[in-house]
Task: structure prediction
Amino acid sequence: EEIERGINAWLNRIHENDRERIETGIRNAINSGHDFWFDEYSFLKKGGDYAFVFDRGYILKDQYGKPYRMIGSIIDITYRKRMENELKQSEEKWRSLFENSPSLIFTLDKDLKITSINRSLIKRAETEDFIGRDSLELVHESERAKVAEIINRVFDKAEAENFIVRGSESQSKHYYSVQAIPQISDNTAAGVTIFATDITEKINSDEKIKETNQRLHALAAHLQTIREEERTKISREIHDQLGQELTALKMDIAFMSRKIDKTKVTGKADWDELNAGLKSMSDITDQTINSVRRIARELRPDVLDKLGLKEAIEWQAEEFTKRTGIDCIVSITASELQFDNLLENTIFRIVQESLTNVARHSNATRSKIGFFISQDEVSLSIEDNGRGITQEEIDNAKSLGLVGIKERVYSVNGTLSIKGTKDKGTILKITIPLRKNE
Result:
């Protein structure tokens, strides 16, 4: 492009933001005795647009070394400058993503040494300490050989790989989902970028879900066993107890029938025998009624219906002491406890199952039931002075007594805590929220 002659015409076409800097630069070059000057600036083209140019001027001097003129050339570098700006913006965007990503990101050379690392899991001042370190130090010792094999395969095949790995010894309880992505240059992997996302919470959640499912399967099997045992027990009670009593009643009826027939023939009645037969029938009927009541009571204690939850718990404690010899103290703050049938039955069954566990496993001599009620919740505690439950027993999915209690608590949106102290006992605490209409 043709440029008008004259210093002023040239200066006037330099963007005002650059003009003072250019004039100062030229003046300093001349005063310093330099032979040339160069710089970059925005220059107004004839079409009215600005171009970014590179300008190099040569300072001409007379025979005495005094500058008298400067000549030079201007090269339009607008495209190159735009590419540089776009590259800079891209690098800044990448750097921002790199540094602020919640994932741990680092790059590796072919020796698996760290060449760069972000600040996701480490302090900024410590990032330089990681440069040049063996990346396998970030991995648990038991998994280093596996990880080295995977990353070397990424280098060899220039293909990305995904895997899960456990953190180093200091982070051994953390698990990471890792993407190893090759940095391709000339169709080969010149380096590898590692993206490591902490998935510890997900792993733990999956494990808890798995454990819960195992407990539920165990509980379902346990409940099925209980059902079969209950059916067998009821069947035996009906057959052995009710069956015998009804058979005896039938025999007495047959006896009375024969006596009545004999009386009809002879016209004489043996009233003593008839009265004895009637009394026997009455006694057997009473026994049968008591048997039916006992079986029904075992299925659902009628004390709940007759007296209410407070008295039912006190009755259960007395029965527990009579049956096991283990003292059981009951402390109930509320004088009246009125809940819906589901909640009453759930609380009563929890007390039953808890006392059963005390009798079977605790080796205790004393136990205590605490029952407290506030405006919003019910609190139940069962304590004993036995050997103390272990954490392994608490976590054991096959601890069916505990699983049953937990499921009953969770069915009414309650919370449960169990703590055992060796040779001092166990305390089980349950909190159940009350619905507004309760």
